[in-house]
């Protein structure tokens, strides 16, 4: 995807290598011109000897991508599920910090803006249990609207497209309460994503499945009083279309249920808008899907 | 159906007289709780005829057969010594029984003296409240204790359940569909967990148990006074934890302690209050009497829970932020939710008891 720069750009200092995500042209201090990977991420990746694995956390707006990623970072920073995560750059800590400060005030963080240059990224070194090599993970906190836009018109969101084409693993989030109570919107969105993955990364031979670990996580499990004892059985019973599609198109997939808040309530603001607030923090099922995915990455 | 008031009515020397208060006892800050009130009916109301006929209808022994001594001994053995020590029962309980009941109470409960407390309200505000003295359970109610309630068919005794939950009591079952906490099986707690706090019970189950033992759930203000008193640093709203203001993972079972599950109620002695109340921080959240009607909100924001909630305090084995286990924290849970990290303990107001020995 490297392209010839325009004439007006000939005098700008060139970066030595191409973009680590898409291979595109990179100018010193600027985001990749092709996939908009921020320069701070490019710089952070270049400071490391080994190439990182890109991981993408996807799902519709409001499903809890920021909360999932931020909580994951905080848990990994303390060591959880046999993994320990070391942030490689200060920008990694911004997402983490924003989440914890919001949770301490019994609030969820603000919605991720749709503009690519305002997304938070993380670059973490993951140290697995003994006997396995450390691996660098790079992941953005993408906006749900951007994911939807890319599903509707492929190619419109270049960062999403580049990530989906290059990533080593996908965490696909689904809002459990909406799955239970609000029809099939979540399931259809997830099916769209699986289909998109399949179109972008077809198996080499006909009939071959996409060889990419995909963890499907039902979020907000704390809102369901009974919880979910068996996420696979839940998926078979409640999102059968998605389950069938995963079986047909994905070589490696696994279902999980997660929750960050121990209890939630709603706040009503002056304009009549409702927002969900966490009444306390009791993370469950956050590290497990990620640990499964890291285990699937191999050498 | 078991009916406790009829059992109490069978005691000898039933006077049917008016309530007697211990002389000089502190005035109750609020009227007696419905649970304890209904328990007292048998003592307060001249209903001997009704009691006798109910006893006969149940095929029970005639009045007085078991005898006060036998009854008192049984109540003490079931941790229901509060009934033996009620002020109303002074004339009918032998001194020996009262002494045995005081002994049981002293081993299981600790006294929190009367006084004021800068109580943190649901909305985050602070109100200086005057509290009467009370006893508080040293430990959260254990599986072993709760099993006595289950085996005594407490779930069938609607008299001790708030009326609004009657339609739902039949749904409060264990894994095998028998009455009991959510994670029990066939009316029994999981093996090896007798001394762990009972969890998987909703607020109403906690209330029913408290009424069965003649106690009630604590208020948030009482909890704060018992947990954060005496305040060492002054000027604030009590200590955050029973041992002071700085969190220490070795003193309480929260997520940072790394245990990841409940511990026996006698563990973490270094985290006990100075008067010997254990695990007011950590292990399981504990149900309080107070409804959760607000949370700290910004300008223009209003709290809208989608189901009735009650406050809980203390934090649990999976409480991630230690600050949430402080005794000033405001959180809650739906009244009918049965979580594996919420249990309870009870209190007994001094003004409902006979004079202290």
TrEMBL record, chain A:
CDD domains: Ras_like_GTPase (cd00882). Residues 54-228 form the Double-GTPase domain. InterPro entries: DO-GTPase2, P-loop_NTPase. Pfam families: DO-GTPase2. Coiled coil: none annotated. This is Double-GTPase 2 domain-containing protein. It comes from Aquisphaera giovannonii.
Automatic annotation (TrEMBL), chain B:
Its EC number is 2.7.11.1. It holds the Pfam family FGE-sulfatase. GO terms for molecular function: formylglycine-generating oxidase activity; protein serine/threonine kinase activity. InterPro entries: CTDL_fold (IPR016187), Sulfatase_Mod_Factor_Kinase (IPR051043), SUMF_dom (IPR005532), SUMF_sf (IPR042095). Keywords: Kinase, Transferase. Residues 1-41 are annotated as: Disordered. The keyword Mitochondrion does not apply. The keyword Iron-sulfur does not apply. Residues 123-347 form the Sulfatase-modifying factor enzyme-like domain. Residues 1-13 have a biased composition (Basic and acidic residues). Residues 23-34 have a biased composition (Pro residues). It is an enzyme of class 2 (transferase). This is Serine/threonine-protein kinase pkn1.
């Amino acid at each position: 995807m490297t392209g010839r720069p325009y004439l007006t750009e000939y005098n700008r200092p060139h970066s030595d290598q191409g973009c680590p995500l898409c291979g595109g042209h990179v100018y010193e201090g600027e985001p990749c011109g092709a996939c908009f990977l921020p320069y701070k991420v490019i710089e952070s990746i270049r400071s490391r000897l080994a190439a990182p694995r890109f991981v993408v956390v996807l799902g519709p707006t409001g499903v809890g991508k920021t909360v999932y990623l931020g909580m994951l970072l905080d848990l990994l920073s303390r060591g959880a599920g046999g993994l320990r995560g070391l942030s490689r750059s200060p920008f990694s800590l911004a997402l983490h910090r924003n989440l914890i400060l919001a949770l301490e005030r019994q609030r969820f963080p603000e919605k991720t803006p749709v503009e690519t240059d305002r997304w938070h990224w993380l670059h973490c070194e993951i140290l697995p249990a003994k006997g396995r090599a450390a691996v660098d993970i790079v992941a953005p906190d993408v906006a749900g609207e951007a994911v939807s836009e890319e599903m509707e018109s492929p190619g419109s969101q270049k960062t999403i497209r580049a990530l989906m084409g290059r990533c080593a693993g996908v965490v696909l989030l689904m809002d459990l309460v909406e799955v239970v109570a609000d029809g099939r919107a979540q399931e259809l969105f997830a099916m769209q994503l699986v289909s998109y993955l399949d179109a972008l990364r077809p198996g080499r031979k006909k009939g071959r499945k996409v060889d990419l670990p995909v963890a499907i996580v039902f979020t907000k499990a704390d809102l369901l009083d009974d919880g979910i004892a068996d996420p696979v059985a839940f998926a078979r019973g409640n999102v059968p279309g998605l389950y069938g599609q995963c079986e047909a198109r994905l070589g490696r997939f696994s279902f999980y249920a997660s929750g960050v808040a121990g209890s939630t309530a709603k706040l009503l603001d002056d304009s009549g808008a409702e927002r969900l607030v966490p009444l306390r923090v009791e993370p469950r099922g956050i590290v497990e899907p990620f640990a499964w995915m890291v285990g699937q990455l191999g050498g | 159906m078991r009916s406790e008031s009829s059992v109490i009515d069978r005691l000898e020397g039933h006077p049917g007289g008016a309530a007697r208060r211990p002389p000089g006892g502190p005035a109750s800050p609020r009227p007696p709780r419905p649970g304890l009130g209904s328990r007292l009916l048998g003592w307060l109301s001249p209903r001997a005829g009704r009691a006798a006929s109910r006893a006969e209808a149940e095929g029970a022994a005639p009045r007085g057969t078991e005898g006060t001594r036998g009854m008192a001994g049984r109540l003490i053995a079931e941790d229901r010594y509060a009934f033996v020590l009620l002020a109303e029962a002074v004339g009918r309980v032998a001194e020996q029984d009262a002494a045995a009941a005081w002994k049981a109470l002293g081993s299981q409960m600790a006294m929190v003296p009367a006084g004021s407390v800068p109580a943190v309200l649901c909305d985050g505000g602070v109100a200086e409240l005057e509290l009467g003295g009370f006893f508080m359970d040293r430990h959260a109610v254990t599986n072993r204790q709760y099993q006595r309630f289950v085996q005594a068919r407490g779930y069938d005794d609607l008299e001790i359940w708030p009326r609004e939950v009657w339609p739902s009591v039949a749904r409060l079952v264990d894994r095998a569909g028998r009455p009991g906490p959510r994670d029990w099986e066939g009316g029994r707690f999981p093996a090896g967990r007798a001394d762990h706090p009972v969890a998987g019970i909703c607020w109403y189950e906690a209330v029913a148990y408290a009424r069965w033992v003649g106690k009630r759930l604590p208020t948030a203000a009482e909890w704060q006074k018992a947990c954060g008193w005496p305040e060492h640093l002054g000027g604030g709203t009590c200590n955050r934890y029973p041992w002071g203001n700085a969190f220490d993972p070795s003193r309480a079972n929260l997520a940072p302690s790394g245990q990841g599950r409940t511990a026996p109620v006698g563990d973490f002695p270094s985290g006990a209050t100075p008067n010997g109340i254990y695990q007011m921080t950590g292990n399981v959240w504990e149900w309080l009497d107070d409804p959760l009607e607000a949370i700290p909100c910004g300008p223009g924001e209003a709290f809208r829970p989608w189901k009735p909630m009650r406050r809980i305090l203390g934090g649990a084995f999976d409480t991630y932020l230690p600050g949430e286990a402080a005794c000033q924290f405001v959180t809650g849970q739906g009244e009918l939710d049965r979580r594996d990290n919420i249990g309870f303990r009870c209190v007994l107001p001094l003004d409902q008891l006979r004079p202290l020995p």
